[in-house]
């Protein structure tokens, strides 16, 4: 049990946020309250961990000295950090530390830092690599951006959540690196789906094929995490197709700002957007294989 002098609250208690909260509570940290736009999720976790289920983000900030935000996208952040809104986190930003963990555009991190600093608080981005299991076990890979002194202030808490906690640079820099991590991961996932889909169509034993992949240049972390799931059509969500599309889009947006064309990343994004159009965005990213196996959904082009 490590404990902490910080009073910790959570905004966003979905798959990742809830397991991070469980990890900190288990390690003896003082958690105060949780908020989620999906109120039943917040109430359930609050009951489990004996916390308050806040009705508004401001209530979490008021009760806490350190607030984790683990929300899904760029659109959520301006709402929970809304200016001139007594229900937002900015209502009680003075002397608070906000650790923002979602994969967001760098500009959003910079804007939130500006707003929080204007109210006397501090921000740190702590972009996460890993999934539900890593969040629960405290073995995430955390890429952090912000002022060095803010990173030092947050380090004791972050070390309980991450096996690797790495300072990347000023605000926005960690978001750039995380976008690139997920862009490459998503492209690897789509390529693996095509390899296994073609293998199946050719009559190759997929268990054998995965073993050969693992021992050759086709090996990847994605093969370890998603290969069997693709073969077995087991797409329980650890990292959704919708989030894969969102993150690849962030990276492609960054590429556009520097005049680069990334055709592989664009093709991958198109595949994940196809899954979303088919109503499969809530499935795990491994479900991209449903588009590459002949006896499954087929491609969006075929369906149209």
Q: Care to give the gist of this entry?
A:
The protein has 304 residues and is α/β, with parallel strands linked by helices. It contains 13 helices and eight strands. It folds into two domains: 164 residues, 3-Layer(aba) Sandwich (Rossmann fold); 128 residues, N-(1-d-carboxylethyl)-l-norvaline Dehydrogenase, domain 2.
Characterization of the model:
The protein has 304 residues and is α/β, with parallel strands linked by helices. The protein folds into 2 domains: 164 residues, Rossmann fold (3-Layer(aba) Sandwich), CATH 3.40.50.720; 128 residues, N-(1-d-carboxylethyl)-l-norvaline Dehydrogenase, domain 2. It has 13 helices and 8 strands. The protein has an 8-stranded mixed sheet with strand order 3-2-1-4-5-6-7-8, with helices on both faces. Strand 2, helix 2 and strand 3 form a beta-alpha-beta unit. Helix 8 packs across helix 10, helix 8 crosses helix 11 and helix 9 runs antiparallel to helix 10. The termini are far apart. The model has no long low-confidence stretch (mean pLDDT 94).
Strand and helix layout:
Elements: E1 7-11, H1 15-26, E2 30-35, H2 39-49, E3 52-53, H3 57-63, E4 66-69, H4 76-80, E5 97-100, H5 106-118, E6 122-129, H6 132-137, E7 140-145, H7 148-161, E8 162-169, H8 173-201, H9 206-214, H10 221-232, H11 241-257, H12 263-277, H13 300-303
Helix pairs in contact: 8-10, 8-11, 8-12, 9-10, 11-12
